[in-house]
Amino acid sequence: MRKLAAIFTLFLGIHTSVSAVEGMWIPSLIDMFHSDMVTYGLKLNADEIYSTNQASLKDAIVQFNGGCTAEIVSDQGLILTNHHCGFDAIQKHSSLEHDYLRDGFWAKNFNEELACPWLRVTFVREIRDVTEDVLAGVTESMSSEKINMLIKENIAKLEEDATSNNSHIKAKIKPFNLGNEYYMLITEDYNDIRLVGTPPSAIGKYGGDTDNWVWPRHTGDFSVFRIYANQNNESAKYSEDNQPYKPAHSLPISCKPKKSGDFTMIYGFPGHTDQHYASGKLKFYMETERPARIKMRQKTLDIIKPAMNANQLTKIQYASKQARIANAWKKWIGQIGGLKQLNALSKKQNFEEEYMAKAAEKTDWKKNYYGVVADLNKLQAQNEKYELARAMFIEYFYVGAEIIRFSNDFEELAFSSDKLESEGKLDEAVNKLLRRSKNFYKNYNADLDMQILTATTPVYLEYTSADLIPDGLNQNWENIVNDIQENSVFRDSSTLQPLLENWGKKSIKKLQKDPALLYSMKLMNAYRMKVAPKYAAFVNEEEKLMKRYVGGMLEMFPDKKIWADANSTLRIAYGKLEGSAPHDGMQYLHYTTIDGIMQKYDPENPDFVLTDRFIELYKKGDFGDYLQDDELWVCFTASNHTTGGNSGSPCIDAEGNLIGINFDRSWESTMSDFMFDESRCRNIIVDIRYVLWVIDKYGEASHLVDEMNIVK
Ligand code: ARG
Ligand code: ASP
Question: Are 506 and 475 contacting, i.e. CB atoms less than 8 angstroms apart?
Fold first, then answer.
């Protein structure tokens, strides 16, 4: 309560001369920050935003398949999210005959909607502060092991009690502010989700990797799904008899003109931020860990990119891998640049000095907090070789050459075949790997993969301390790579498939000698023996110190605006629709228009191709009611603090209407995961009027627009 009171006082004192608002706020604490939102222009009451007694905005917002966010826009369970969030589902429904990625898809009626039984959406029914209950019984004199055990037991019991009389409901308790607080999330999953519509990639992914993380932006990054429920409107597995879900609330949509300075809020599920890193860790990330990972990915991308441009099959096979590798790679480069520009390190160091000076003011504080900064930075210095080794292992093993992780999946079959057989599990294991192989080779190019293996191994070795790699690898890696290239059965489905189809002694012998499988096992083993235990001990120690460090901030700096780092729970970020000026001599406008799509059009560059239909419609100039001053807005920027996971989140105006779908941040602002900068951090939103124009005019699916509640 003490902390909450402190935050409350703080918000009363805030003035609106600053535009952007740092932070991703917990909706159930709305009373603490509602008055500040009002000073930014919000017109809604607190309980219209979050309430457990009446329908509120939160009832229209879901987590989409555990990662992204989506929002309900009709009383028949229609939801909007990003194209890149629906990408997987769209790809799964695509074939040569029905290439929905290339051509788009629009269901004409409920019957044509495509079932996606692998998808789920999650509603948040309630967020409850359970800090006191979780910490019940914890005393200062207890050992940290004892405390952890007690907390674990308390959490298990609280979660169980909360769900005991309702099987649909899940309860999950998560630590906030590094374990200084705990909240219980009461959630409910719906599992019958159907694809309703998607624009072609030439709209939904327009700009591709070139424009990813970049403003000005012209991507129509949206797709349309629907939630289905059983006859009682309850969550149910896919069934033909299911009905469109009737939500407690759906977001009205505003097509009214917008202007710079308008209130905006992003309501969604930000994934992860690290605002409290001590200076030592931030320095390690900026100067060592991220550059090493960037270099490793650069090697892979340098091989994939030209191969994709040279060959159509490779382009299809590697499109989604390339997008995944490049997305984080590009973000990291942006983050390091942004942190340097901000002088983030010296800002951290200055704060650490301030923190220690503060701690020196009181005996209690001195005892609890004075030494924690030095301890954190010392711990980091002592352990970063393990943290780096872990990062390099992840990049090399899980992001680099695919033959390593793919062959590793065969370890059990190769070395425990007898055991599997005696347990009656052999057939199942062989069949599973056969299916996995079919999927794998569909998108695999062995020559490219060998090039990647050759290029990334030296980077793995360069950055991993010699005592943390498999013995002798520094000397013999080239032989190993050659051996894999010449002799591994995993290079080609035509050598692996027959071994699986006629599984027997011969297959076992062959796999047990396979150089790729043996190498992957060596790597995994070295990681498990030499790196993982040290890293785990480090993290354990670090968590304890970080909890104390942040606890000290909450106690000693009651005026500091402290928000809990993102942790994949429902949050609110608010601010204004506005542009920015991150570089000397230039200014980013706050919106882009359809004219910019035509300006970027380049039939020679796959990132900027357009369909004939789009060009035709553009020339025809039929923009319906979606124009503002004769312009069709495509995207706009706002100063809402967002991160990965906020993709698909609704951008909501002062009255609670949907005005766009959040999907990205500008490159200059990606460092907001570590440090927010009011003048530069901007999230990127696709304007709802462009979304509606695409559905209505391009997709000729006006029945979907009719289903929505459009406020004029
Ligand atoms: N950068 C955005 C986010 O992190 C969008 C990524 C999808 N687009 C792409 N071209 N890879 O998720
Ligand atoms: N593009 C991100 C996402 O997919 C959003 C961001 O990082 O700003 O969640």
Answer: no
Shared domain for 114 and 148, answered yes or no, is no
Are residues 115 and 128 both part of a single domain?
Answer: no
Judge if 131 and 244 occupy the same domain: no
Q: Which domain holds residue 185?
A: 123-190
pLDDT band at 3 (very low <50, low <70, confident <90, very high): very low
Measured CA to CA, the distance from residue 669 to residue 87 in angstroms comes to 25
Q: What is the DSSP string of 194-231?
A: EEEEE--HHHHTTTHHHHTT-SS------EEEEEEE-T
Among 68, 210, 308, 647, which is best to mutate for testing ligand 1, by the most ligand atoms less than 8 A from CB? 647
Residue range 224-231: mean pLDDT, rounded:
98
Q: Is 323 in the pocket of ligand 1 (CB under 6 A)?
A: yes
Cα(285)–Cα(674) distance, rounded to whole angstroms?
11
2 within a domain of the structure (yes/no): no
141 Cβ contact partners less than 8 Å away, ≥ 6 residues apart? none
CATH of the domain at 664: 2.40.10.120
> Is 168 among the residues known to form the active site?
no
Domain count along the chain: 3
pTM, two decimals, is 0.92
pLDDT of residue 68: 97
Taking residue 543's Cβ as centre, other Cβ atoms within 10 Å add up to 15
| Pairing, β 253-254 against β 710-711 | parallel
| 358 plus 243 within the same structural domain | no
286 pLDDT above the threshold of 70 = yes
Q: Are residues 517 and 369 in the same domain?
A: yes
Position 92 confidence tier, pLDDT thresholds 50, 70, 90: confident
Question: Model confidence at 508, in pLDDT bands (50, 70, 90)?
Answer: very high
**If you average pLDDT over residues 651-670, what whole number do you get?**
97
Q: Are 656 and 251 in contact (CB under 8 A)?
A: yes
Among 555, 590, 622, the domain boundary falls at 555
Ligand number nearest to the C-alpha of 645: 2
pLDDT over 90 at 265, yes or no: yes
- Is the CB–ligand 1 distance for residue 208 below 6 Å? yes
In a domain, 4, yes or no: no
Q: Are 427 and 392 in the same domain? A: yes
- Give distance in angstroms: CA of 333 to centre of ligand 1: 14
Backbone phi and psi for residue 268, each to the nearest 5 degrees, phi listed first? -170, -155
Query: Which atom of ligand 1 is nearest the CA belonging to 207?
Result: 10
Q: Which ligand is nearest to the CA of 219?
A: 1
Claim to verify: residue 210 and residue 107 sit in the same structural domain: yes
Q: Which helix (H) or strand (E) holds 483?
A: helix 473-487
The pLDDT tens digits for 156-178 are 999 999 988 777 899 999 999 99
Angle CA(700)–CA(706)–CA(711) in degrees, nearest 5?
125
What is the CB < 6 Å shell around ligand 2?
642-647, 663-665
Helix (H) or strand (E) holding 115: strand 114-115
Mean of per-residue pLDDT scores for the chain: 94
pLDDT per residue over 518-558, tens digit each? Answer: 999 999 999 999 999 999 999 999 999 999 999 999 999 99
Q: Does residue 442 fall inside a structural domain?
A: yes
What is the distance between the alpha carbons of residues 463 and 391, in angstroms, rounded to a whole number? 10
3-class DSSP assignment, residue 75: coil
Domain boundary pick from 506, 531, 555: 555
Query: Does the pLDDT of residue 317 top 80, yes or no?
Result: yes
Per-residue b or e along 126-148, where b marks 16 or more CB atoms closer than 10 Å to that residue's CB: bbbbbbebbbeeeeeeeeeeebb
Burial (CB count within 10 angstroms: exposed 0-12, middle 13-18, buried 19+), residue 396: buried
Round to the nearest angstrom and report the end-to-end CA distance of the chain. 43
Q: For residue 167, is it within any domain?
A: yes
Please state the atom number of ligand 2 nearest to the C-alpha of residue 662: 5
Find out whether the beta carbon of 204 lies less than 6 Å from any atom of ligand 1: no
Q: In angstroms, rounded to a whole number, what is the distance separating the alpha carbons of residues 709 and 456?
A: 52
One domain, residues 444 and 518: yes
